[in-house]
Known about the structure:
Layout: H1 2-22, H2 30-62, H3 74-89, H4 98-120, H5 128-152, H6 155-165, H7 177-192, H8 195-201, H9 205-210, H10 215-237, H11 243-255, H12 260-285, H13 292-311
Helix pairs in contact: 1-2, 1-12, 2-7, 2-10, 2-11, 2-12, 3-4, 3-5, 3-6, 4-10, 7-10, 11-12
Amino acid sequence: MLKKKIILLSVVALALIAIFMLIHLNTSNLDYVLPRRGKKILAIVLTGAAIAFSTVVFQTITNNRILTPSILGLDSLYLLIQTVLIFFLGSGSGLMSTNVNFFLSVGLMVVFASVLYRLMFKREDQNIFLLLLVGIVFGSLFGSLSSFMQMLIDPNEFLIIQDRMFASFNNVNEDILIFSLIGFLLIGLYVIRFTKFFDVMSLGRDEAINLGIPYDKTVKKMLILIAVLVSISTALVGPIMFLGLLVVNLAREFLKTYRHTYLLMGSTLISVIALVGGLLIVERVFTFETTLSVIINFVGGTYFIYLLLKESKAW
Length: 315
């Protein structure tokens, strides 16, 4: 039954991708349109997969289905890095070139995550929810610092920062596609070996340790990889707050399973369906009068409130 559901999601995702690639395509615009749509669809698939993948793993290690990696302040850190670079060096600096900026952002986010997790997990009995609390504090600090520098910066430079503050699927960073693809595939191959651990870790920390899972060691590794996946998705299109929450919970409701092999595949496919389907609606129905990120944040925010009410049993 689970395999049939995964096949169904795959067929829907492939059908939407085919429609997106072939709509209004003819022999006169084939050479111009097809390569551009191909790069755009690859960026969308990579973004959706990175967000879904990181959210599934993050919810498993926190044992909470209403949390996403953005609570650790990684999105805010990415925006702070961009703001600091433009504030001190200007938008014409070599560090703002696409590839250098991408590797610098990923490197700094991984360093931040490594230092934070090393300090927080120094003691064996350290609670992961203390890490989440520290992440919220750092996220607020990074956001405040970014806002402060943006108020002092040149208005023309501020417009460049503003472009990176909001997710845009019509302005995808195509220059880093190949690096993002390689990075995601390497992380995916590495994480697959831990899926059997995730099934046990979803029971909770104490149960996982009692069943022989190297819990703390696995959590540290996964948090570092989550930082890389967040930086890849943010660098490609910008920060998207509620997409991970939306698609992962829809996958849990649709698949009705605890097995992470299926959850990871299902969440990734639903994420691709949501992004490609949403982009078709924005381009063909609303004719670009709104953006996909606005729709995702509206639907995701509404679903988040529903989950909060459901969890508190007030629904």
